[in-house]
Automatic annotation (TrEMBL):
Enzyme type, top EC level: hydrolase
Keywords: Disulfide bond, Glycosidase, Hydrolase, Metal-binding, Zinc
GO molecular function: alpha-mannosidase activity; carbohydrate binding; metal ion binding
One Pfam family here: Glyco_hydro_38C
PANTHER family per record: ALPHA-MANNOSIDASE, LYSOSOMAL ALPHA-MANNOSIDASE
EC number: 3.2.1.-
Record's protein name: Alpha-mannosidase
Family: Belongs to the glycosyl hydrolase 38 family.
Necessary cofactors: Zn(2+)
Note on cofactor: Binds 1 zinc ion per subunit.
Length: 662
C-alpha cells in the first residue's frame, strides 16, 4: 500500500495540498507559530514522499475569516495559490455579481511587494458538494441509480440537476473552468460509495455533450485547476486588506472566537515562546543526536502545531478537547525543558564541571513556584531569546519578607516585596501554595544570552518594602515614574488620564471592566433571530455594554514601592484588575482576573475591558496582523436591525500584538 500511494503521488494523481501540521486559525495565531507548524508538516511530507510530496496550493477551507498576513506567508513559502471556503456572505454576494470570486491578493503591498502576492480564490459552496450530491454513509442524498429496470432509476434527473448547478456556479466565475468540492467533514468513511457515484456522474454528464452540452466533468486537483486559470491569461482584480470579520448570515458575525478561552490562547503564545528558546539553545549548544534533543523538541513542535488549528487556539472546541490541547502542550514543555537542561550543562559548565540541573517555575502566572517557596537560598537563571538586550521584571512567589539578590557580577540588586493579592489567592489551582508574597527585581539581559541571580532570605528588615493605602475621598490619585503618569479620578476611582512625561502629551483615557449580555437562542435553529452568542459568534443583546456599578474609590488599593507601583481595582467579586507601573518603564500594565463568571441566572456575560479616549481618530485605528505587519482598520461600529428592532454590533478587529490610533 505504501508503494502504491507513493506511486500515485509521483505520477501526480494524488496531490497533497496545504501540507501543514494542521489547517491553522488565521485570527489568533502568531506568525512564527504558523511558520513552525507548516515547516513541521512540510518536513514530514519530504521525508515520506520526496519532492513530489511538496504542496503547491494552500487550502484554508474552514478557518473563520482570513488574514492578509497568512497570504503573505504562503507566498513566501512558495505556494502558487490559495483557496478558501469562508468569506462574509455580503462580500461573496458582491463577488458573485462581479465575477471576482478569484483575485490576486497582495499580502504586503507596502513592504515586500510582489514577493507577497498570491493568487487566491473563494470556493463556491464552502467545502461541501453541490446540494443533493453527498454520497457518504452519513449523507441523506439519493445515490445515482442507472439501472432503468429499477423503480428508483434517477440518472437523468440527477445529471440534469448537476449540470444546472455547474452552469449556475460557472456564471459567477471569470473563466470556463470551475472547481467543485466533493466531500465534507467526516466524509470518505466509505470512499467506495463516493467514487462509484462520481464515476457515474462523470460518465453520464459527459454523454450529454453529443446533445450540445458544454459541461465536461473529470477528476482533477487544485494544482491542475490553478494551472487552467493561469492558462486563461486573464487580468485579475486585486485585494489589499483581509477577510475579517466573517459572517455567514445576518446577526452571525464570527468574532466571538477572537477572545474565546483566553487562558488557552495565552498558554499557546507562552508555549510558542518557549519552543523558540528550546530551538535556539539546541543550536547554540550544538546538541547531538545522542542527546535526543530532536526527539524532545518534536514532542513540543507537534503539540504546538496542532494547537494552531482553527478549532484549537481559536477557543471554539469543547472543554474536554481544550483540556487535551493544554495537556499536550504541558507534556511538550516538559520534554523541551530537558533540551534546555542539556544545553545549559554545555554552555554553563565551569571547566569539567557541568552546570547543575535546572528546575522550572511553570505556574508563575498564578504566583506558584515550589522551589522559590520552599528554599531560603536558590539561584535563578533567566534567558533572553531576542537578538537585543532587554529589561525583564522578575516576580517570584516567596514566603519571606526579606531577601538579598546578587547579580551576575556579584552586585547587590534592589528588590521589593509585594503581597500576593486576594484575587490571586482565590484561584483554585493555588491550593497548597505557601507563597504569601512576591519578590520583585529588575533583570538586565544580554542578547541571545542568560544571566544568573543569587537569592537569599535574610533576617534584615527590608529597605524596599511596599506601602499600601486607599484612595482619599474625592482626591485624584496620580501614579507616575520618570516617563509615564496615570491619573485616577477622585470621585469615581477610575483611570481618567495618561501623560507621556517625555513628550508632555496628555490623553484623556477612561478604562473600566464591563460586560455585554449575550443573546440566548439555539444554534440549531435557522431563524435569524435565534442565533445565540457563543464561542464562535459574538452577539450581544444590546449595543451598549453594562457597567458593574462598582464604587472603585472605596475598593481601590494603592501599593507603592521603589521598583513598582500598583493600583488594585475591584469591579465585582469575580472581576478585578491591577494597573502596574514599573520604575523606568515607558508603559503601564493592565492585568485582569475574571471568573468564574456566574451563570446561575442563565444569562451569558461577555466581559470586556473598555478604553475610552479623546483621540480624534475618525474611526481609523491600526492593528497588527498575526503579530507582524500593521494594517489600517476602520473601527466604526455599524449596526443592523431585525424586524424585532434588535440592534447588535457587527464590526470588530482582532488584535494579536497591539493597536494604536492617531
Amino acid at each position: 500500500m505504501r508503494h502504491a500511494v507513493k506511486g500515485l503521488v509521483n505520477s501526480g494523481r494524488l496531490e497533497f495540498i496545504l501540507g501543514g501540521w494542521c489547517m491553522n486559525d488565521e485570527a489568533t495565531t502568531h506568525y512564527n507559530a504558523i511558520i513552525d507548524q507548516h515547516a513541521l508538516g512540510f518536513e514530514f511530507l519530504r521525508q515520506n514522499f520526496g519532492e513530489c510530496g511538496r504542496p503547491r496550493v494552500a487550502w484554508q477551507i474552514d478557518p473563520f475569516g482570513h488574514s492578509r498576513e497568512q497570504a503573505s506567508l504562503f507566498a513566501q513559502m512558495g505556494f502558487d495559490g490559495l483557496f478558501f471556503g469562508r468569506a462574509d456572505y455580503e462580500d461573496i454576494d458582491q463577488r458573485k455579481k462581479t465575477k471576482t470570486m478569484e483575485m490576486m491578493w497582495k499580502g504586503s503591498p507596502k513592504n515586500l511587494g510582489s514577493k507577497a502576492d498570491l493568487f487566491s480564490g473563494v470556493l463556491f459552496n464552502g467545502y461541501s458538494p453541490p446540494p443533493g450530491f453527498c454520497f457518504d454513509i452519513n449523507c441523506n442524498d439519493d445515490p445515482i441509480m442507472d439501472d432503468d429496470r429499477l423503480h428508483d432509476y434517477n440518472v437523468q434527473q440527477k445529471i440534469t440537476q448537476f449540470i444546472r448547478y455547474a452552469q449556475l456556479q460557472a456564471s459567477h466565475y471569470a473563466t470556463n473552468n470551475i472547481i467543485m468540492t466533493m466531500g465534507s467533514d467526516f466524509n470518505y468513511q466509505n470512499a467506495h460509495t463516493w467514487f462509484k457515484n462520481m464515476d457515474k456522474l462523470i460518465k453520464y454528464a459527459n454523454q450529454r455533450q453529443v446533445n450540445g452540452s458544454k459541461v465536461n466533468l473529470f477528476y482533477s486537483t487544485p494544482s491542475c485547476y490553478l494551472q487552467s486559470l493561469n492558462n486563461a491569461s486573464k487580468t485579475w482584480t486585486t485585494k489589499q486588506d483581509d477577510f475579517f470579520p466573517y459572517a455567514h448570515r445576518p446577526h452571525s458575525f464570527w468574532t466571538g472566537y477572537f477572545t474565546s478561552r483566553p487562558t488557552l490562547k495565552g498558554y499557546v503564545r507562552q508555549t510558542n515562546n518557549f519552543l523558540q528558546v528550546c530551538k535556539q539553545l539546541d543550536g547554540l549548544a550544538e546538541l547531538k543526536d545522542t542527546d535526543n534533543s530532536t526527539f524532545h523538541l518534536n514532542i513540543l513542535r507537534e503539540a504546538l502545531g496542532v494547537a494552531q488549528h482553527h478549532d484549537a487556539v481559536s477557543g471554539t472546541e469543547k472543554q474536554a478537547v481544550a483540556y487535551d490541547y493544554a495537556e499536550r502542550l504541558a507534556n511538550g514543555v516538559m520534554e523541551c525543558q530537558k533540551v534546555v537542561n542539556d544545553a545549559l550543562k554545555k554552555l554553563y559548565k565551569k571547566g569539567s564541571t557541568p552546570a547543575p540541573n535546572q528546575l522550572f517555575c511553570n505556574l508563575l502566572n498564578i504566583s506558584v513556584c515550589h522551589m522559590t517557596e520552599n528554599s531560603k537560598q536558590f539561584t535563578l537563571t533567566v534567558y533572553n531569546p531576542l537578538a537585543r538586550s532587554v529589561i525583564s521584571w522578575i516576580r517570584l512567589p516567596v514566603v519571606g519578607t526579606n531577601y538579598t539578590i546578587r547579580g551576575p557580577k556579584g552586585e547587590n540588586l534592589l528588590s521589593q516585596i509585594i503581597q500576593v493579592s486576594a484575587d490571586t489567592k482565590r484561584i483554585p489551582e493555588r491550593k497548597g501554595s505557601l507563597a504569601k508574597n512576591e519578590l520583585v527585581f529588575r533583570a538586565d539581559l544580554p542578547p541571545l544570552g542568560f544571566n544568573t541571580y543569587f537569592i537569599s532570605m535574610t533576617g534584615f528588615k527590608e529597605r524596599h518594602s511596599t506601602k499600601s493605602f486607599k484612595m482619599k475621598s474625592n482626591s485624584d490619585l496620580v501614579m507616575k515614574n520618570e516617563h509615564v503618569s496615570l491619573t485616577f479620578d477622585g470621585p469615581t476611582g477610575a483611570l481618567k488620564q495618561i501623560t507621556n512625561l517625555d513628550s508632555r502629551v496628555t490623553v484623556q483615557v477612561k478604562q473600566e471592566l464591563m460586560y455585554y449580555i449575550g443573546v440566548s437562542g439555539s444554534s440549531k435553529s435557522s431563524a435569524l433571530n435565534a442565533q445565540p452568542s457563543g464561542a464562535y459568534i459574538f452577539r450581544p443583546n444590546e449595543t451598549v455594554p453594562l457597567s458593574f456599578h462598582a464604587d472603585l474609590k472605596k475598593t481601590t488599593v494603592i501599593k507603592e514601592g521603589a521598583l513598582v507601583q500598583e493600583v488594585y481595582q475591584k469591579f465585582s467579586p469575580w472581576a478585578t484588575q491591577v494597573i502596574r507601573l514599573y520604575d523606568g518603564a515607558q508603559h503601564a500594565e493592565f492585568e485582569w482576573t475574571v471568573g468564574p463568571i456566574p451563570v446561575s441566572d442563565m444569562i451569558g456575560k461577555e466581559v470586556i475591558s473598555r478604553f475610552s479616549t479623546d483621540l480624534a481618530t475618525k474611526g481609523v485605528v491600526y492593528t497588527d496582523a498575526n503579530g507582524r505587519e500593521i494594517l489600517q482598520r476602520n473601527s466604526q461600529f455599524y449596526y443592523e436591525k431585525t424586524i424585532f428592532n434588535r440592534i447588535f454590533v457587527t464590526k470588530m478587529s482582532v488584535i494579536d500584538l497591539g493597536m494604536y490610533g492617531v
